[in-house]
């Protein structure tokens, strides 16, 4: 019966392959023959069981523990008969390691012919050579999946033997990698050119037992830690020798189609697998001594700095704003003032309401479609007082087309005292073009005359004395100053409240008793309330009241039948506070 070497290289006898490797190196050194390269070691290992077949169970368990629990439980459920063996992460790891050891022993005991027949259906990449090593790697990858199979193949931490160092150094002299002997500070300067996220991603992708401690806050310290770790890893691989390089390479890349690589290529691909291509490329950059580098770069840096400063100065001169002229400033200020100034909207000549969208009706054109005759003065009272008695000129516009129409003069544009244009709102224009009187037109019984300027200063109490209808009550709240030096200072407010009963009169003016019935004064102060100190708040002027009532009787049809009583008027002062107020 024939047994393969891997059958004896069980987990308990890993040192057998190490001793054989050491013996091969010693024989080569003593005979002066060329040392074996990594490519030759890879080719010879493909014909035999892979090196990762002889790891210890603790190494397999440690590699698997780095994977997530869902991945491990999913694989464990497929290979165990009891669901309790895949209950948690620890049991899943033990189940996978046990199953792997059993299957490994079974496959290791097979000869090549039996193994090839047994794994005939194993899916190997098309371009990959079907050898014993590739078939075993494909079998476990199909059995456990890529993640678990990769973890099982991950080699343990390399620990070089001092007895092998000299032979390994001689075997690695052909690799021209000067950065391995560079200082950590030089390597860290290269890594500082990378982004913080790239550095941290590289550290996180390392296996937990390889992963170095790093400072998340300091980018410099993180780069130093990674540079030191990469350098130590490279030194370990460099001293390990071609055989170990081949074993590590096959553990990382079991399905490559071409294995005829130089030791340097194998070395660089292993480091790229561990740390990523980006970090490896930056580490491999040429190391230039700082003094030589500074001296050679100083003139160029100075020239570049001067050129950059000159460009910045020229760009600043080209883009520097020129002083704004006074004319532009004044124009902008005037534009801002005109744009933010409130302007009184147009007044509709028909309904006397404000409307910013009023349209212009030119009297020089054809206005027959407007049917302005609907606005002709027809109220008997207005005709008698304003037209026949000529008491008002509010319907005379010095234009025969609109003279006698009930229009608001504020909505008419005059040139040389002659009306030339009307402002009409869209609602009134629509009604007139349909030969209908606009609902809000002055001619629709809404004209009450124009208040003369002499009555613009009427107080609210005087207006209430002259009002036919009184539908509100007024409450005034007054506070007297508590400062003894200012006893006549009052402050407060008056509120108007609606009443349910509408009060009407047939004789005007109203008596002071009637007005006091609608007023309520709440006085808050240290002294007794004195109405004479109130100033104009409750001011009453007898002559102003009588003049206003006479004007209303002559110009307002609502007051035409109201009787004016001088005896009531004499109850009010010539100019003073409302009588009876206390």
Secondary-structure map:
Blueprint: H1 5-8, H2 15-31, H3 38-46, H4 57-65, H5 69-79, H6 89-108, H7 112-118, H8 132-144, H9 146-153, H10 162-171, H11 184-191, H12 196-204, H13 219-240, H14 242-252, H15 263-275, H16 277-283, H17 290-319, H18 326-340, E1 359-362, H19 380-388, E2 412-415, E3 418-424, H20 426-433, H21 460-466, E4 469-480, E5 490-504, E6 507-508, H22 512-517, E7 519-524, E8 539-541, H23 542-555, E9 563-564, H24 566-569, E10 575-577
Helix pairs in contact: 3-14, 4-6, 4-9, 5-6, 8-9, 11-13, 12-13, 14-15, 15-16, 21-23
Task: Explain the overall architecture.
The chain is mainly alpha-helical and 582 residues long. 47% of the residues lie in helices and 10% in strands. It is built from 24 helices and 10 strands. It has helices at residues 5-8, 15-31, 38-46, 57-65, 69-79, 89-108, 112-118, 132-144, 146-153, 162-171, 184-191, 196-204, 219-240, 242-252, 263-275, 277-283, 290-319, 326-340, 380-388, 426-433, 460-466, 512-517, 542-555, 566-569, and strands spanning 359-362, 412-415, 418-424, 469-480, 490-504, 507-508, 519-524, 539-541, 563-564, 575-577. Strand 2 (412-415) and strand 3 form a beta hairpin. Helix 4 (57-65) crosses helix 9 (146-153). It is elongated, with a radius of gyration of 54 Å. It starts with a helix and ends in a 5-residue tail after the last strand. The model is unreliable at 1-22 and 159-172 (pLDDT under 50).
């Amino acid at each position: 019966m024939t047994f393969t070497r891997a059958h004896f290289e069980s987990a308990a006898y890993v040192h057998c392959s190490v001793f054989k490797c050491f013996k091969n190196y010693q024989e080569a050194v003593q005979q002066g023959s060329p040392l074996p390269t990594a490519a030759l070691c890879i080719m010879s290992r493909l014909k035999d069981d892979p090196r990762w077949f002889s790891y210890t169970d603790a190494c397999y368990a440690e590699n698997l523990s780095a994977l997530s629990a869902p991945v491990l439980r999913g694989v464990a459920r497929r290979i165990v008969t009891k669901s309790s063996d895949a209950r948690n992460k620890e049991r899943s790891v033990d189940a996978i390691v046990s199953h792997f050891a059993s299957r490994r022993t079974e496959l290791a005991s097979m000869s090549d012919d039996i193994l090839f027949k047994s794994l005939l259906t194993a899916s190997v990449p098309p371009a990959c050579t079907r050898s014993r090593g590739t078939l075993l790697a494909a079998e476990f990858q199909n059995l456990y999946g890529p993640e678990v199979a990769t973890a099982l193949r991950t080699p343990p931490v390399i620990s070089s033997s001092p007895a092998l160092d000299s032979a390994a150094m001689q075997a690695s002299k052909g690799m021209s990698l000067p950065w391995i002997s560079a200082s950590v500070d030089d390597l860290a300067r290269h890594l500082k050119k990378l982004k913080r996220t790239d550095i941290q991603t590289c550290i996180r992708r390392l296996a937990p037992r390889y992963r170095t401690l790093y400072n998340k806050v300091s980018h410099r310290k993180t780069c130093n830690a990674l540079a030191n770790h990469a350098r130590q890893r490279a030194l370990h691989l460099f001293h390990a020798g071609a055989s170990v390089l081949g074993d590590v390479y096959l553990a990382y890349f079991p399905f490559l189609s071409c294995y005829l690589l130089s030791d340097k290529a194998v070395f660089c691909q292993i480091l790229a697998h561990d740390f990523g291509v980006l970090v490896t490329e930056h580490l491999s950059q040429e190391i230039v001594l700082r003094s030589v580098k500074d001296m050679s770069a100083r003139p160029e840096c100075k020239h570049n700095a001067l050129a950059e400063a000159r460009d910045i100065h020229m760009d600043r001169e080209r883009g520097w704003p020129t002083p704004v002229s006074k004319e532009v400033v004044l124009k902008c200020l005037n534009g801002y003032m005109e744009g933010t100034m409130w302007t009184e909207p147009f007044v509709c000549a028909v309904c006397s309401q404000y409307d910013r969208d009023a349209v212009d009706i030119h009297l020089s054109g054809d206005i027959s479609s407007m049917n302005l005759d609907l606005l002709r003065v027809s109220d008997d009272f207005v005709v008698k007082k304003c037209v026949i008695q000529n008491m008002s000129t509010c319907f005379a516009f010095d234009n025969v087309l609109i003279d006698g129409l009930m229009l608001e003069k504020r909505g008419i544009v005059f040139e040389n005292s002659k009306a030339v244009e009307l402002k009409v709102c869209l609602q009134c224009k629509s009604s007139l073009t349909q030969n209908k009187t606009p609902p809000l037109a002055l001619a629709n019984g809404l004209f009450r005359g124009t208040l003369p300027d002499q009555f613009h200063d009427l107080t609210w109490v005087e207006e209430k004395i002259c009002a036919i209808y009184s539908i509100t009550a007024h409450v005034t709240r007054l506070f007297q100053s508590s400062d003894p030096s200012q006893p006549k200072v009052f402050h407060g407010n008056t509120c108007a409240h609606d009443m349910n009963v509408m009060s009407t009169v047939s004789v005007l003016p109203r008596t002071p008793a009637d007005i006091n019935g609608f007023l309520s004064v709440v006085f808050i102060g240290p002294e007794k309330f004195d109405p004479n100190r109130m100033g104009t708040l409750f001011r009453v002027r007898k002559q102003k009241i009588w003049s206003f009532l006479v004007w209303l009787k002559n110009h307002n049809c609502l007051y035409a039948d109201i009787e004016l009583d001088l005896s009531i008027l004499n109850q009010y002062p010539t100019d003073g506070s409302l009588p009876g107020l206390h």
